[in-house]
Amino acid sequence: MKFLLVSFAIVLMILGLTSGYDDHDPCFLKCKFWRSISRICVKTEDGTEKTLINESVLLCAKGCNRNWTLLHHGACPSDPGGF
């Protein structure tokens, strides 16, 4: 049981470190994100493509007046491992 808890904690740490957004940004600190992982590809204000863990991150960005656009579900070809 202890192994499962440690494994779960490690997975959460990895997701937190590779979520596709700056977790030091005050905007993203106030958002609550869904726990599901269904990656999406978005286009950011500067035209780059970024893979996010799910649509809750995109909704948070739009709530912070970020002009990010959903391109498609799944990882971006330019950022395949991204999260």
TrEMBL record:
Residues 1-20 form the signal peptide. Keywords: Signal. This is Venom polypeptide.
